[in-house]
Amino acid sequence: MGTPGTSTTMHIGAVAERTGLSLRTLRHWDEVGLVRPSGRTDGGFRLYTDSDVDRILLVRRMKPLGFSLDEMGDLLDVVHRLAAGEATDPDGTDLRARLDEFTTTARARRADLARKLDMADELITLLGAI
């Protein structure tokens, strides 16, 4: 397919370095359709745009909160459609309401992680006192 448009593109190695993710993870996300590169070289190498990297970084931020690949894909779809100016799903569901649900879930999962960190800190303190 070649380089899309005139935007700057980067190969997978540069994207891995920029995002802190492994080549394997990026390839997997492409294979399952989560974050596909915008183009490929004539030789078949993946070419990512800054917009692709932004999507990758959004997914990377979802990982520690335990979102599934399907949930990540749904959120990416909502964000993309809101950015395109859409307001509802084809079934009439409000996209902003769906985004709010993701935000609520992310807050709850963050709070759970914070509780776990507090318990880990307590354990470390207890072990240090032995």
From TrEMBL:
What does the UniProt keyword field contain?
DNA-binding
Membrane-spanning ranges: none
Q: Quick check: keyword DNA-binding in the entry? A: yes
Entry-linked Gene3D superfamilies:
1.10.1660.10
Domain HTH merR-type span(s) in chain numbering:
9-78
Q: What is this protein called?
A: MerR family transcriptional regulator
Phylogenetic lineage: Bacteria, Bacillati, Actinomycetota, Actinomycetes, Micrococcales
